[in-house]
């Protein structure tokens, strides 16, 4: 019953690829629009995934296969500027002024990682060996986690909630995936370098997903990762150019000062700039977290205010890959329901 | 350490500092304990840079110490500051130059309050009018006087007779910079370079030839902290905070500390004396203390003014080793002579004396 119906998917990350693949499987013509030169989104940078350390390449491979379908036209290097409903169709406008008509559209513009420079007190971009969680994944991919001068780290610290649950940077929300990512990365460091001490500095451990709590226990019981409840207040360097952090250990009830070789900032998720531009140009509502606000949190979590336009994935809120794929599939279901009723 | 990273932050915290025509408000602490700083700010601005800086003798304390000591209500301090603005308005000035970091923090807090809660501005206008019959305009800019010296740092460097360089080795002096907490930690946008990597003193030090030390406790409070010192039972906290900083900077063997806050200058100086008296410890190279100077005092030295006219002798930690390194000849015997040549009582146990 699909006829020659055409759905435009804006964003070629996990959600966009899954939505495009599912739609094509159901017989729809799909235009998958990606602003970068190749699809894959943030997953391209990831080495292994929680909670089972599955190689990220396996999911990348699945998604590549998913969009390998003659019904999908992949357009890269193109950013969707505006979406509107016109007559029976949706019209998507690009930065160069050209446009594309479809019967429906799915917005899957995803997220951006929090810019760690904004937490000035951690000295990212100033002090050597202050890196982000994404850059640590690059190190895993390269096969070595070392300091700027090539040394194996004796001690690594991971700061949770960098850019999340932080009024100072106007992000009140939890990015959901950083805690479990830190646990995963801490284990990976310990597996790679059993001599390296690893400390996680957290506010709360939000182990909400299946097998996350088990992973957290494994980190402590098997891999001897140290978890300290307290927010790091600042980083600096000493005369040996070794990092020095200050943190309040709220369980021990005392301030703590510690030297580290590498400090990893667990950067959270923010609404992507391209998504924000698209929201503004298209008159789409955003929430207090600046992500797209769906029509109903419970019953309409894929619906936008524009007829025929739906949301998929982390453009609506931080979520992990499992939930992103489920959300994309739900967006496809809503799209099909809309097209069948039209 | 990546300088580019610091420059990135500095570029995000640039503030408007006027070029001329300032209404000057003094500091209670500075004009009492090291009065040469304010004297030389005015001298450098008026005589060396040819700027218009106006003072009104009716200007009073901002009551900031009382406010932070919980004895002056916010409504009262707003009215006192509004009176300062009224004096500036009456004199035709729109740019306030503030000598004290506590006052600067107070002015910043009040302006932000008036911006976000306009009803508080209206109430303050009413309170001031009822109390004094005065009206006022909100100033166009507020600058801390360190902002102003920062703005003219290169002009001062062009007139320099001495640099922050060890004349024997030719190497830059190692300088600790310390900003007052209330300069930019409350409102980073009001400070040159923000709060985490402030540039205001760094800019001066680099322009005048020195090297800045970035030590682990660089951001730590000097220990004044108002109630930490004002409540006698808490003074141990105050002393310990300074000590923590000294121990952290000691390995770098600093030649000099420059601060932009009256309290910081005073406490980092006086507590070195106290620590030496209690424990016999000093933190500079070769068993000496580390001189703690204001940016105007350093600007005065760089421009070749007489150290004893600037008033360096009124610090507990004497600057003689620093003067020797910079090649400044100053007779220590002249330190405690009054203008008419009579000898003043000499303080006992001066450090680097």
Structure in words:
- The complex is a heterodimer of chains A (342) and B (353).
- Chain A has 342 residues and is of the alpha/beta class.
- Chain A folds into 2 domains: 6-110 and 272-341, FAD/NAD(P)-binding domain, CATH 3.50.50; 116-268, FAD/NAD(P)-binding domain (3-Layer(bba) Sandwich).
- Chain A is built from 7 helices and 20 strands.
- Chain A has helices spanning 14-25, 56-66, 133-142, 178-192, 212-221, 273-282, 321-341; strands at 6-10, 29-34, 48-49, 54-55, 72-76, 80-86, 89-94, 99-102, 104-107, 111-113, 130-132, 155-162, 197-202, 226-229, 232-237, 243-249, 254-260, 262-267, 269-271, 309-311.
- In chain A, the strands form 6 sheets. Chain A has a 5-stranded parallel sheet, with helices on one face.
- In chain A, β3 and β4 (54-55) form a beta hairpin.
- The radius of gyration of chain A is 22 Å and the shape is elongated.
- Chain A starts with 5 loop residues before the first strand and ends with a helix.
- In chain A, 45% of the residues are buried.
- The model of chain A has no long low-confidence stretch (mean pLDDT 97).
- By secondary structure, chain B is an alpha/beta fold.
- Chain B folds into 2 domains: 13-145, Up-down Bundle (Glutathione S-transferase Yfyf (Class Pi), Chain A, domain 2), CATH 1.20.1050; 154-334, Rossmann fold (3-Layer(aba) Sandwich), CATH 3.40.50.
- Helix content of chain B is 46%, strand content 8%.
- Chain B is built from 17 helices and 8 strands.
- Chain B has helices spanning 3-12, 28-33, 36-48, 64-68, 74-91, 101-116, 118-132, 145-151, 153-158, 181-184, 200-207, 227-230, 235-249, 262-279, 295-302, 307-310, 320-326; strands spanning 22-25, 53-54, 95-98, 141-144, 174-178, 211-212, 256-259, 292-294.
- In chain B, the strands form 2 sheets. Chain B has a 4-stranded parallel sheet.
- In chain B, α14 links the parallel β7 and β8.
- The model of chain B has no long low-confidence stretch (mean pLDDT 96).
- At the A-B interface, β15 of A face α1 of B.
